[in-house]
Inverse folding.
């Protein structure tokens, strides 16, 4: 069964990984956390340990519906350095499949030239890595197959944008109301 995959590297921003994950699961989306560390337990940027659903080594590309990269440091740079994840991202990009990232993590796409000619957002200062993109500074930016978020304060909006892409606006309204985001 296909799943949205939230990739966790040592030093990921906890809010940017867990709030969008929670929103999508509330909306009935199959979401899996995937550790790229070789260990099921991954420590976030603020020393919060999270036990992933699976290891990257056990992931099959055909089972991935969407790639989601949380930011945080050094989480985003650790994701950027992972060769297996890079291969998966490039395969998704060439097929026009959905790619999402928030905070510092859009640099993973930007450094590979995947955002060239597209509107994009990220944590201020990381826009220098968005090669050829038009930096908007918006809290959430959706362009073609990319959904990007600015930073921790955008985590809920980012999660709702992902849910809308996957399950539609009616589901977003239902989940927003249940979470008291009215």
């Amino acid at each position: 069964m296909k799943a949205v995959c939230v990739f966790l590297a040592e030093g990921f921003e906890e809010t940017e990984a867990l709030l969008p994950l929670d929103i999508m699961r509330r909306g009935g989306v199959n979401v899996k956390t995937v550790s790229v560390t070789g260990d099921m337990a991954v420590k976030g940027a603020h020393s919060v340990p999270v036990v992933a659903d699976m290891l990257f080594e056990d992931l099959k590309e055909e089972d991935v519906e969407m790639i989601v990269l949380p930011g945080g440091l050094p989480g985003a740079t650790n994701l950027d350095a992972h060769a297996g994840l890079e291969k998966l991202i490039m395969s998704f990009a060439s097929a026009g499949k959905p790619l999402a990232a928030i905070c510092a993590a859009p640099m993973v796409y930007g450094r590979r030239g995947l955002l060239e000619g597209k509107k994009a957002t990220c944590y201020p200062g990381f826009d220098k890595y968005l090669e050829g993109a038009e930096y908007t500074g918006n809290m959430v930016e959706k362009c073609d197959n990319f959904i990007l978020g600015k930073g921790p304060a955008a985590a809920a909006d980012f999660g709702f944008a992902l849910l809308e892409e996957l399950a539609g606006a009616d589901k977003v309204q239902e989940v927003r109301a249940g979470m008291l985001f009215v």
